[in-house]
């Protein structure tokens, strides 16, 4: 299934639902995908399960720093509480690469309330920690993991892609389109506060209107 | 055109495009509408123009404090720079009423960047200033004024309604539906940060994709 012309993608936190769903879709489209986790063993278990689902061998597992080192593009899909420590663990492997941050700053138990860290977006703190040498892009926060794992299902939710490096944002728009998602270059990294906060709004809508996975579509474009 | 059974609505800043568009649509549906402005003269001019458009007399003009005093529901649709001073001017007339805040904290010239006041939503500062005796609701930030003034045009943008008083939020959802808008009770007032920030994201999309008025639809509900 591997296609040498396609970027190798590491999904840190790929053992989780959201990261796992994205990993599955990219592997299905021919990317070599490396599942990252805190331990190589857990990562390999998730990779094996994914290969079994896809009937291939394009997914491998590794500890987060090894996964990041071997990839062209790194996706950060860990819980908010682990965001900064995971970035520190892999920072040495990120120079010059694109880091796609999927983190939503949910603060349990009130996950349907928007609670911004220090009033800003979570991803801006990551960009600040890493410096300009890493191309940090925010994306995929609002996509329901439930829908990602159904490979033939059209996902009725658009992806807002935010980055200070507009070329990196366009590459992530293309990566989203590859797996069947409508995606938009939505401006600078600070605009990610909307995508991050929107997840809590969608959880609030799910609860109030008793639906499993609300989303958004951009209209008029 | 006036219908005594319907709430009287004051639109502070109803001389502007967004407030004027909302005022026109509510007047068209039979509400008595009071246009508020800093001077009664400017307000009356805008009211006269609206009555001429509608062929009626249901719209009147008044200085902001008088407009607020005579209304059941007050809509705040002034520029961000005038938000807090306008609220102070009319505070005495708001007790027990619903105040619908439409304010977007745009900071020119970079209006396509999300720039949150002290990291939070603009409307929370208003609720804090007024105290619990006023039912503050955030809504309508993302609706293009351009579309509102075309009375027979379907508007392809949903309204996110946020309030700590859920009953007040439901009343505003109904007011939005009256004028042909899909609207959702999107959780507590702090969630307004998404609706406020989303306006800058939509401006960023308008510029990048060269469209006049992008919007959002909620899906899966």
Which features characterize this protein?
homodimer, 221 residues, alpha/beta, Rossmann fold, eight-stranded mixed β-sheet, 8 helices, 39% helix
CATH class of chain A: Alpha Beta
Spatial order of the strands forming the largest sheet of chain A: 3-2-1-4-5-6-7-8
Low-confidence spans of chain A: none
What's the shape of chain A? globular
CATH topology of chain A: Rossmann fold
How far do the termini of chain A sit from each other?
A: 35 Å
Largest interface: A-B, 39 and 39 residues
- Specify the CATH architecture of chain A: 3-Layer(aba) Sandwich
List the secondary-structure elements of chain A in sequence, H or E.
Answer: EHEHEHEHEHEHEHEHE
Number of separate domains of chain A: 1
Pfam families (chains A, B): F420_oxidored (PF03807)
GO molecular function, one term (chains A, B): NADP binding
Protein name (chains A, B): Pyrroline-5-carboxylate reductase catalytic N-terminal domain-containing protein
Keywords (chains A, B): Oxidoreductase
């Amino acid at each position: 299934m591997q296609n040498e012309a396609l970027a190798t993608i590491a999904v840190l936190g790929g053992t989780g639902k959201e990261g796992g769903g994205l990993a599955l879709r990219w592997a299905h489209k021919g990317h070599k995908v490396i599942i990252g986790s805190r331990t190589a063993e857990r990562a390999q278990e998730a990779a094996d399960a994914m290969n079994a689902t896809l009937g291939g061998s394009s997914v491998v597992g590794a500890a987060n720093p090894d996964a990041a080192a071997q990839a062209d593009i790194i996706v950060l899909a860990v819980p908010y509480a682990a965001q900064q420590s995971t970035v520190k663990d892999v920072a040495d492997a990120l120079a010059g690469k694109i880091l796609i941050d999927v983190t939503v700053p949910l603060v349990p138990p009130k996950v349907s309330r928007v609670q911004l860290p220090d009033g800003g977006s979570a991803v801006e703190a990551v960009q600040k920690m890493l410096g300009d040498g890493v191309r940090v892009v925010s994306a995929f926060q609002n996509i329901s993991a439930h829908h990602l794992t159904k490979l033939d299902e059209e996902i009725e939710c658009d992806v807002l892609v935010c980055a200070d490096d507009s070329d990196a944002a366009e590459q992530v728009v293309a990566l989203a389109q590859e797996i069947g998602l409508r995606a938009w270059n939505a401006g600078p990294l600070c605009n990610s506060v909307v995508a991050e906060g929107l997840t809590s709004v969608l959880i609030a809508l799910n609860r109030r209107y008793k639906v499993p996975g609300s989303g958004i579509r951009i209209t008029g474009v």
